[in-house]
């Protein structure tokens, strides 16, 4: 498989990275590369040591998922092995699953491809395959978290190309809408089906609405370490009341999130369907998480690492 990756890798527009599109994809995507479905894809990006988050994320989402994995030379074999294990063990990621399509893509630094790092890494520099303690699917997420080493994104030896990773996943998301999240953010249970129902009720998939530039903001919260992640709004509000959860970036960058108006959202009673609570124009420096059309502008790939990288897309004219 590593040799196949080397053959299929294509250079990105900057000339700094090689992209492997559709390293893994659901059987239902075969032959449908140019077909866009009336659906929504969760788009994310990761490094090897964060791939364990895909287990809970895919089980919560239960819909199309597109992920791009950043794989420096020393992590490539491990990334491939982990993706194989995930597709074998996690029903929502399985190619034989009745779940909607998922895709996995890989991004590699260009010099590591040209120097033979893909498929040609020497034993003393390549991460050994199968460090996962056998082929059992039991407690896979916990075993991945324990067994898969990897530095933080700031310690990879190359600036983490977060916006390029997002764009690669978006280009391989074959649905009309996307929800772009970091891999360690969990959607509430069943959010995919709730948004699809909302989109159908409001005729968002019909041709006459496809030029609409409205996006649908989803409030995000952060939970105290060690506290189980709530699965729905009712349990989330209980966590907030107990001071075990709070609005996302409340301390780190409140000006980046305050226009979501968390207080208004928290006052609205929980329900089993999505609805628009209020409308607001974008304001600088708001960086919300939102459902938007995949025809929207792509992210500015000059941004690396983290910090005001998503705003580069929100603030761009269509």
TrEMBL record:
Q: What is this protein called?
A: Beta-1,4-glucuronyltransferase 1
Instruction: Print the organism lineage.
Output: Eukaryota, Metazoa, Ecdysozoa, Arthropoda, Chelicerata
Keyword Membrane in annotation: yes
The ranges of region (Disordered) come to: 109-131
Q: Where can this protein be found?
A: Golgi apparatus membrane
Any single GO BP term: protein O-linked glycosylation via mannose
Write one Gene Ontology MF term: metal ion binding
Q: Which family does it belong to?
A: Belongs to the glycosyltransferase 49 family.
């Amino acid at each position: 498989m590593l040799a196949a990756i080397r053959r299929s890798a294509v250079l990105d527009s900057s000339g700094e990275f090689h992209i492997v599109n559709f390293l893994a994809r659901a059987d239902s995507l075969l032959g449908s590369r140019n077909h866009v479905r009336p659906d929504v894809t969760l788009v994310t990006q990761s490094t090897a040591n964060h791939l364990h988050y895909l287990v809970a994320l895919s089980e919560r989402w239960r819909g199309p998922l597109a992920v791009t994995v950043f794989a420096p030379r020393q992590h490539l074999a491990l990334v491939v092995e982990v993706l194989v294990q995930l597709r074998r063990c996690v029903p929502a990621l399985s190619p034989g699953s009745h779940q909607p399509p998922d895709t996995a893509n890989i991004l590699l630094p260009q010099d590591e491809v040209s120097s033979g790092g893909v498929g040609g890494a020497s034993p003393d520099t390549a991460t050994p395959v199968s460090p996962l303690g056998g082929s059992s699917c039991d407690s896979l997420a916990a075993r991945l978290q324990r067994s898969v080493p990897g530095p933080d994104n700031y310690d990879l030896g190359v600036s983490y190309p977060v916006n390029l990773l997002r764009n690669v996943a978006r280009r391989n998301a074959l649905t009309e809408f996307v929800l772009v999240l970091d891999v360690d953010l969990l959607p509430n249970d069943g959010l995919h089906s709730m948004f699809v129902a909302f989109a159908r009720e409001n005729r968002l998939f019909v041709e006459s609405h496809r030029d609409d530039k409205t996006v649908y903001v989803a409030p995000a919260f952060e939970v105290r370490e060690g506290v189980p992640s709530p699965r729905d709004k009712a349990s989330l509000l209980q966590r907030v009341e107990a001071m075990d959860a709070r609005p996302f970036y409340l301390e780190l960058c409140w000006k980046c999130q305050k226009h979501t108006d968390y207080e208004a959202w928290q006052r609205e009673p929980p329900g089993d369907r999505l609805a628009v609570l209020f409308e607001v124009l974008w304001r600088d420096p708001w960086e919300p998480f939102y459902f938007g059309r995949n025809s929207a502008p792509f992210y500015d790939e000059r941004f690396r690492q983290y910090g005001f990288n998503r705003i580069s897309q929100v603030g761009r004219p269509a």
